[in-house]
Amino acid sequence: ARAQIGVTGLAVMGSNIARNFAKHGYTVALHNRSVAKTDALLAEHGGDGDFVRTETVEEFVAALEKPRRVLIMVKAGDATDAVIEELAAAMEPGDIIIDGGNALYTDTIRREAALSERGLNFVGAGISGGEEGALNGPAIMPGGPKESYESLGPLLESIAAQVDGTPCCTHIGPDGSGHFVKMVHNGIEYADMQLIGEAYHLFRDALGFDAGQIAEVFTQWNSGDLESYLVEITAEVLAQIDAKTGKPLVDVIVDAAEQKGTGRWTVKSALDLGVPVTGIAEAVFARALSGSRAQRKAAVGLASGTLAAKPTDVEQFTEDIRQALYASKVVAYAQGFDQIAAGSAEYDWDLHPGDLATIWRGGCIIRARFLNRIKDAYEQDPALPSLILAPYFREAIETAIDSWRRVVSTATLLGIPVPAFASSLSYYDALRAERLPAALTQGQRDFFGAHTYERIDADGKFHTLWSGDRSEVSEG
Ligand code: NBP
Fold it and tell me: Residue 13 and residue 55: Cα distance in Å, rounded?
C-alpha cells in the first residue's frame, strides 16, 4: 500500500482532481466503476504523476496507506450511497471517506451519522470551480469530524486554489456543513448570474447596445470593484462570434435557462430556515420562467403600457447599472450569509462567515475582489447583524442608492424585467424601514384565526374579541 489518496469516479471532475493530487506529488490510487475511464485517464495523463491503477474496490482500498483516504467523485444521489456502501465494507475503523460530489447536505448528515457508527470518518466536501478548478485549484469546503481534517487537510489545502498564500480550503464544521455552505455558494452564484443578466438586458433593451458593446462595458467593469470571475466570463461570452452565422453567439443561443438543482435546494432550505433569500429565489424563478417556452410564446405581444422613456444620458445610465449591480450583489451575499448563520444555529455547526469569504476568494465560481471586503467586514465584527451594516457596504450602498432606484424605476417604466434588482432594493428598503405593514398582517391573523399579537407598549400576547364586543384581552 503506497497511495496517499484514492479517487473513485473518474469522469471530468474526478479525473481532474486526481491529476491535481498527482501534480502535487501525491501517489493517487485510481478507481472507476467501468475500468475504461481509468485506462483513458492513464493513457492521456499518466505522465502527470504517480498513479496506481486498480480495477476492483478491494484492490483500490488495498492500494492505500492507512488511515486510508478515499475521495468519491460520482454522480450525486443513489450512486454516492452505492459507492459508500462498497467502500465501507472494505475499509477499516479510522479510515476516511470523502464525498466531493454535489450532495444535498441532509444526505451528508445522514451518511456521516451512519458511517461514524461503523467507526469510519465521513467528510462531505463541497468543491467549486468546475473542471478547470478541479485541475488547477478549486475552492474546497470540507465538513466532517475535526480529527479527520488533521490527516486530510494538508492534502486538500495543497491542491486548492491559493490567494495571497492562503489556501481556498478550510475545515468548515461538522457533518453536512461543508455541503451546506457549498449549496449556499451555488445559490449566491445563481443570484450573481441573474443580476449580471439583468444588467445585460438593460444595456440591450434600454440603451440599445449590441453584444460587442456590452462586452466592452463588462471588460471595463472587471478592472474595478466588480472584478470577478463571473463578470470576466460574461465579457468573453458576449464577445464570442458564432462561426456559423457571424452573429454574436449570445444572439443565437435559445433564451431558456436550465438548472441542475442546487439553487432550488438553497431556496427550499431558506424557506425551512425562515431566511429571506429573495435574490437567490428570484434567480431560480427567473430561470424557471425563461424555460416556460410555450407560455412565453403565447404571451408575446401583451401590453407594455405607454410610459416608456429611454434614458437620455447613456454614460450616467451605464454608471447607474454598475451601481445597481454592486448594491444588489451586496444584498445577495448578505442574504446568503444570513442563511449560513441560520443553518449554523439550526445544526449547531459554529460556522465562521469570515472563513468562508476567505476561501471563496479563489478557485470557485463566485470568486471576486469583493470577497476581500466581506472577509474584512467579518474580521472587524464577527457578530455583524447583516453584511449590509458593515461600514464599507453601508457606504457603498449609500453611494449607489439613487442609481439603484433609477435603474429599477426606468426598467419598470420600459417594461424590462429586473426581478433581482427590484427585489434586492425592496429587501433593502424593508430592512431599513422603521415600521412595516406586518402590524396589519398580525391584526388580520388575529381577526380570522385568533392568532394574537404583541403590543408596542406592553409585554405579553393580546387578542381582540373581533366577533364580540371588540374589546382586547390579554392571552397567557
Ligand atoms: P458525473 O456527475 O457525470 O458522474 C459520472 C461518474 O459517476 C462516473 O465516474 C460514473 O461511473 C459514476 N457513477 C455513476 Br453515474 N453511477 C455510479 C454507480 N452506481 N456506482 C459507481 N459509480 C457510478 O461526473 P462529474 O461531472 O465529474 O461530477 C462528479 C461529481 O462532482 C458530481 O457529484 C457533481 O455534482 C460534482 N461536481 C461537478 C462539477 C462540474 O462542474 N461538473 C462541479 C462541482 C461538483 P461510470 O464511468 O462507470 O459510468
Answer: 19
C-alpha span between 127 and 353 (Å, rounded) = 17
For ligand 1, whether the C-beta of 364 sits within 6 Å is no
The answer to whether the CB of 121 falls within 8 A of the CB of 94 is yes
CB environment 227-254: b (16+ within 10 A), e (fewer): ebbbbbebbebbbeeeeeeeebbbeeee
- What average pLDDT score do residues 349-368 get? 96
Whether the ipTM is more than 0.90: the answer is yes
Identify the residue whose C-alpha is closest to ligand 1 atom 3: 75
Q: Is 189 a catalytic residue?
A: yes
Residue type, 46: G
pLDDT tens string 82-103: 999 999 999 999 999 999 999 9
Instruction: Judge whether 182 counts as a catalytic residue.
Output: yes
- Name the residue with cell 426581478: 419
For ligand 1, mutation pick of 37, 73, 131, 260 (most atoms within 8 Å of CB): 73
Based on the number of CB atoms within 10 Å of its own CB, is 315 exposed (0-12), middle (13-18) or buried (19 or more)? exposed
pLDDT in tens, 445-467: 999 999 999 999 999 999 999 99
In angstroms, the CA 333 to CA 457 distance is: 35
